[in-house]
Amino acid sequence: MKIGILTYHHVINDGAVLQTLGHVKTLKEMYPTATIEVIDYRHKTIEKIEKREAFKSLIKLKKGAFSKIKKYYSFKKFVNELLPLTEEKLISDDVEEAVKFINRQNYDYVIVGSDEVWKLLDRKYARQFPNIYWLPEGIKAKRIASAASANGSNPKLLQNSEIKNQAKNIVNNFHAIAVRDQYTLNLIKSLEVDAPLYQVPDPTFGVDWHASGVKEKLEKVGVDFTRKRFALNLSSNNSEFAKASEQIYHYAKQNNIQLVGIGQYNKFCEMNFSDVLNSLEWATCYQYFDFCVTDRFHSTIFSIKNKVPFLVIESEKKYPTEHRGKIVDLLSKINKLQYHQFYNDSIDFKLLITDLIESHKIDDFDSIILDLKNQFRTYLLNVIK
Q: Domains in the chain: how many in total?
């Protein structure tokens, strides 16, 4: 049996490569005799933009520019070395060319997902619908969606009858469809497709994560293990997040806590790094912190998986409709919405963090982690024979 995975494996984002690796590791454990590959298709426009953005920071002499370029090249190296990529690579925006490329690999199953592979946008440099991530009918293998998401889509495009009919025609003959969030589940239900429909967690819940030498790397760059440590993956460039970060900074100063930026740059942190750890090391570094503050989905997930108390801060401006996003969707399903706040000026973040730390019970997350792992694996077992 030969299985190909099509997803955003190549974008400069730790969460994107980890969800890809989560699929790979899960499938290899469940189907040890199968050939598992990540289809090395890369969207030409996105590839150009990412490289341009990395070097634009250097040209404009932005803070952290060298770190950003270093991250760009180390990330590409990590993807090329760790993921089981197809021998052949395609960089193209042409859907027909991509279909032919996938068919040449002679797969029994093609899995699309995880990530927001079904996001519908009409921005200039977005992946325009219909793109290859919808797995159009020309693909010969059985088509499966696994933890696919349309989160962040333009609501107006979802109301376009021509787009909805086209989407229905594409996914109607999928072997099975599993989506990652309620928003996408509602979308696919509205299309009234015949394919079996499920909801599953992110693939990063499907496996256990391990990396060696992480603590030593953190110590080398200045993480102080003689003090309490808070990890922040929250940008101070956002005015609301900057206000929250300033409160957290004063809390940390009063309590001799080291604030460490582990992704997005935050000026209130004692130190920031984005290029020190590879994606696998980043996934496991959370265990070395006493608390995490973030607005990011996979930082939330790896706080949960490392059983570290955390706080998600989001801006309500991000969600102009009743949809409240993938983090709220996840936390509501596991009954942990107390770890999430939409920012407003009246919140006392120092008090909130104190309460979350005091009430956090490590054992409380063990059954949740196991249940999410089983949910993801059960779906794959049911649809891949």
A: 2
Rounded to whole angstroms, the Cα distance separating 101 from 91 reads: 10
One-letter amino acid for residue 179 of the chain = V
- Given 173, 207, 241, the domain boundary residue is 207
Instruction: Show the tokens assigned to 191.
Output: 């299309």
- What is the distance between the alpha carbons of residues 146 and 27, in angstroms, rounded to a whole number? 12
What local confidence, expressed as pLDDT, does residue 60 receive? 61
Distance CA 295, CA 314 (A): 6
Low-confidence ranges of the chain (pLDDT < 50): none
- Full residue range of the structural domain in which residue 239 is found: 214-363
pLDDT in tens, 224-278: 999 999 999 999 999 999 999 999 999 999 999 999 999 999 999 999 988 899 9
Per-residue burial over 34-62, b = 16 or more CB atoms within 10 Å of its CB, e = otherwise: eebbbbbbbbebbeeebeeebeebeeeee
Whether the CB-CB separation of 87 and 79 falls below 8 Å is answered with: no
Any idea what the CATH number is for the domain that residue 315 is in? 3.40.50.2000
50 three-class SS: helix
Q: Let me know: does 312 contact 340? Beta carbons within 8 Å.
A: yes
pLDDT of residue 47: 80
CA distances from 261 to 182, 293, 332 (A): 31, 10, 27
What are phi and psi for residue 361, nearest 5 degrees? -125, 120
CA-to-CA distance for 294 and 264, rounded, in angstroms? Answer: 9
Is 85 a domain residue? yes
Q: Classify residue 77: in a domain, yes or no.
A: yes
